[in-house]
Design goal:
Number of domains: 2
Helix content: 25-40%
Number of helices: 13
Largest sheet: 9 strands, mixed
CATH topology of the largest domain: Rossmann fold
């Protein structure tokens, strides 16, 4: 996938160079080949240097990509209608993972207030000090009267709680291991250093852990895949899900992300996998370019998420597309109300465009799915 990308500034390049030095040191310590999962972890989360740990704007028009909550309030207002029954039935809290700019938190709180279904606490699990500050400012700007219910966490709640867990575009940023299926066998795709000092792709024989992960993920589908076939597995998904839901005693967990279900993730036509990068609203597939300056993601295997949930004692509802989910949870009424409230024709046009982007095939409507796990 060749995409023309804008050039980073001198300051941005210097930032990336500092992270690159750290990555090179890890590659050397690993004997010249660093597993991609570790590279992705450093590129996204290295303290003070990784993409999500540094201070640059990530979300919205001034960032690198736009999430559903950044488009406007329609997404949050429909989601509020989905989570409200759980809160009305048993009370409790909302725990949002990876809350980004805070747009979802502010709009969800306001709509839950309209529905008379406010949580006891709205808890945001966010480790980045910079993002916490942005989220706090967003809440104070849009719903200051509700800020007393909002609190920030460094880790999942240690004690038993009940309510609703929300994760919008979170799983896609969990590190993945890359593999290549070739006639000669299974290989791990790793990161090395070329003679000129640049990062480069390498392949080494897969270790036993990767072999087990790939065998479990592919199952019978392996026999029908063409070679070479490259894709990814997310071994940390199951332990991560167990950690974030361990103390959820009763309630629902909503996971919204781009991905595939029904055995479609490892399809023969997807022979180059789903790894994608985002830089200033351009999507491309060069994950080794400018570490620390671009987002790195991989699509979600919702079948694997369901299996991980079952292992945690969670019960999965039928998987649906984002469009199906929004329609089932009041999109028509939300749109009608927002249309009536719109200040002018320009606002009504933007609202219509927002709904199109959220629901149309080829945009977020079918690329994104919603998995609901309940306990």
């Amino acid at each position: 996938m060749r995409v023309e990308l804008p050039e980073p500034s001198a300051e941005e390049r210097a930032h990336s160079a500092r992270l690159l030095a750290l990555i090179r040191a890890e590659i050397a310590a690993a004997g010249g080949a660093l597993d991609f999962a570790r590279y992705m972890e450093l590129a996204l989360y290295a303290p003070g240097l990784g993409y999500y740990s540094a201070g640059a704007t990530k979300f919205g028009a001034a960032g690198d990509f736009v999430t559903a909550p950044e488009l406007g309030a329609v997404f949050a207002r429909c989601l509020a209608r989905a989570v409200a029954p759980t809160l009305l039935d048993g009370g409790g809290d909302v725990l949002e993972l990876g809350p980004g700019s805070g747009a979802l938190a502010a709009d969800l709180l306001l709509e839950l207030e309209r529905l008379d279904a406010l949580p006891r606490r709205y808890r945001l699990l966010e480790r980045s000090a910079d993002l916490r500050q942005r989220q706090r400012q967003r809440v104070m700007r849009h719903c200051p009267h509700l800020q007393v219910r909002v609190e920030w966490l460094d880790a999942p709640p240690p004690g038993a709680w009940r309510g609703v867990l929300v994760a919008n575009e979170v799983i896609d940023a969990l590190p993945v291991r890359l593999f290549a299926l070739r006639d000669e066998g299974l290989f791990a795709r790793v990161v090395g250093i070329a003679a000129d000092g640049r990062l480069e792709w390498r392949e080494i024989r897969a270790d036993a852990a990767l072999g087990d992960s790939v065998s479990h993920a592919l199952g019978a589908a392996a026999a029908s895949l063409p070679t070479p076939y490259r894709s990814e597995v997310r071994p940390m998904l199951a332990p991560w899900l167990a950690a974030v839901t361990r103390t959820l005693a009763r309630g629902s967990a909503f996971f919204i992300d781009y991905g595939y279900a029904g055995g479609a993730f490892y399809a023969p036509q997807r022979r180059d996998g789903t790894l994608r990068c985002h830089f200033r609203h351009r999507a491309h597939d060069d994950a080794l370019l400018w570490p620390g300056l671009q987002d790195i993601t991989a699509w979600v295997d919702f079948d694997a998420l369901g299996a991980a949930g079952a292992a945690c004692g969670l019960v999965a509802e039928p998987f649906v597309s984002q469009a199906q989910f929004l329609i089932a949870h009041g999109l028509e009424a939300v749109f009608a109300a927002a249309y009536a409230e719109a200040a002018d024709e320009g606002a009504r046009y933007r609202l219509a465009q927002q709904v199109k982007q959220l629901t149309l095939p080829g945009q977020m409507g079918d690329a994104f799915g919603v998995a609901v796990l309940r306990r």
